[in-house]
Design brief:
124 residues; mainly alpha; 2 helices
Length: 124
C-alpha cells in the first residue's frame, strides 16, 4: 500500500517553481558572498581616493548583505506552509485509516454472521 502516486500537475509545477527559486536564491547568496569577499581585499592605488573607495565598498557590502538576507527570507515561510499542509494531510490520513479499520471490522462481523447462516442452512 505504500505505492507512490504522481503529484497533480499544479502541485508538480509548484514544487518545480519552489526548487528553481531555491537554486536561484542559493546562487544569489553565493554570488553576493563572493563579491563581499572580493570587496574586502585592499587593492592598489586607483583613480578614486581611498576614503571614497572605502565608502563605496562599505555601501556595496551593505547592499550585498541585504541581498543575502532577502534570498534567505522566503524559505522559512514556505517551509512552514509545507509543514502545516503535511500535518493536515497526515491527520486526514489517520482519520481515513481509522474509518477503514472500523469498516473492515464491521464487514468481518457481518461476513461471519452470513457464513454461520449459510453453513447452518438446510438449503446449501
Amino acid at each position: 500500500m505504500a505505492t507512490q502516486r504522481a503529484l497533480p500537475q499544479s502541485k508538480e509545477t509548484l514544487l518545480q517553481n519552489y526548487n528553481k527559486r531555491l537554486k536561484d536564491d542559493i546562487k544569489s547568496i553565493m554570488d553576493n558572498f563572493t563579491e563581499i569577499i572580493k570587496t574586502a581585499k585592499i587593492e592598489d592605488e586607483t583613480q578614486v581616493s581611498r576614503p571614497t573607495q572605502a565608502e563605496q565598498d562599505h555601501y556595496e557590502m551593505h547592499v550585498r548583505a541585504a541581498n543575502i538576507v532577502r534570498a534567505g527570507d522566503d524559505f522559512p515561510s514556505v517551509n512552514d506552509a509545507i509543514s502545516l499542509q503535511n500535518q493536515q494531510l497526515r491527520s486526514l490520513q489517520e482519520e481515513c485509516d481509522k474509518k477503514l479499520t472500523s469498516l473492515r471490522d464491521e464487514i468481518a462481523v457481518d461476513l461471519y454472521e452470513l457464513e454461520e447462516e449459510y453453513y447452518s442452512s438446510r438449503y446449501k
